[in-house]
Structure formats: C-alpha cells, structure tokens
Amino acid sequence: MSEPAATPAPSAGTVEAVVRAQLAKALGGRRGMVEAAVPTLLFTVVWLTTKQLPWALGVSVGAAVAMLVVRLVQRSSVQFCVNALVGIGIGWLFVHLAARGGGDADDQALAYFLPGLLYNTAYAVGMVLSCVVRWPLVGFMVGSVTGDPTAWHADRQVVRLCTTLTWLLAVPCVLRVVVQGPIWLGAHGGALEASTAVAALGVLKIVLGWPLQLLTLGGMLWVLGRDRTPVQPGPASA
User: Considering the entire predicted model, what is its pTM?
Assistant: First the structure.
C-alpha cells in the first residue's frame, strides 16, 4: 500500500481537503487497521483458549513486532505497529498492577482492557467539551496546515464545519464507553463471569474499533463532500 500523499499547501486547498488528507494519514488505510486490530484479537483468543496471560501477551507482542519488522524492511511508516506495541505495553502495566494488588488471572485479564476504556473516556470528554466551548479539536487540524493554530476560529463557517466533524469523531468513543463500560464494571464487581466479560470486551474492542471508525469516516466524508470552505493561510504561511 502506498504511503499517503503529502498534505497540499494551504493556498491551494479547502478546509474539506485538508481534513480529508489528515484523516487518511491518521487512519493508515486497510493495513493500518489490520495492524491495530490483530494484537487485540490474538490476545483475546489466546487467553480464552489457554487462560495463560503470559502467553496471550507474548503472542500479541510477537505479532506486533513481526508487523513492525515487515514495515522496517519495506521502509514504510511504522506508526501503527508502534501504536499497537505501546497499547500492549500499557495493557501489560495495568495487568502487572492488578497482579501486585492481589488480583487473580481473571482480574488481570480485565485490567488489560481498562486502559482502552480510560482512553476513550478521556477522548470523548475532551472532544465533547471542545465542541461545547466552540473550539472543536478538528479545527486544530486546519491550524496545523495554515501555519496559525488558532486563526481558523475567526471564521464561523470553519468553526461550524469543524464542530460537526468533531461531534462525529466523538461518537465512536462515547459508544465504546457506553457499551464496554458496564461489561467491565459488571465483571469487576462480580455480577458477570470474568471469562464471558473478557470475550465480550475482546470482540467489542474489534467491532467498535475500525469498523465503527469507518462508519464515522463515511459520515465525515459525506459532510466534507457538501461544501468547499477555502483555507485561509495564517501569518506563518503568508
């Protein structure tokens, strides 16, 4: 898969084109999606079949490292492989903390999914608040291209567009928290069997990951296809 093209110069683009280019770069195409999903899928399958956390973590790390090596050999972007490794590392840290706190294997397996819930909660809160205060986070994508991180805020049309896009980006994070949160809390509190919760969380992490992100992207592309808002270069690029 070829690497995303460089972002066009601000003077030759529109806000819609800028955001489309930034989204394509952030998502990484089909290959980036696979690299993000495979380690979680392997962790869930190995843990459910063996109940051995070291094996589950080892297999997921091994898969991420293998994909990283392929990227290095091909001299292509390693961003998504590194992201996967960082995610596994943070998950392992939470597993380790659960073990130190006296948690059994079930508690430790549940701990692996806690960072994702916290991450999505933080993102959901941040994006919703940015829309409420009328400084939508997507606007800073535009600012990163124009050379002035805040000049876009003076244009009401751009603010309105970026607010709509930020709300759309927030939807997957909110859904993940609303759907996965009760499962994690139920298992952690003993109301739900841990193995059932881990299986559900593993499946939901994938289903509510890139598939949901693609649906969101489709909605954003529909919004971006309706208008042509000129990019106004900031002082740094004038």
Answer: 0.73
